[in-house]
Amino acid sequence: MNPLIPRDAAHRIHPLAGQGVNLGFGDVACLRDVLVETLENGGDIGSLTTLTGYETARQCHVVPTMVTIDGLQKLYNTTFSPVVLLRSLGLQMVNSVPALKNLMIGHAIK
Question: How large a percentage of the chain has pLDDT more than 70?
Answer without folding.
Answer: 91
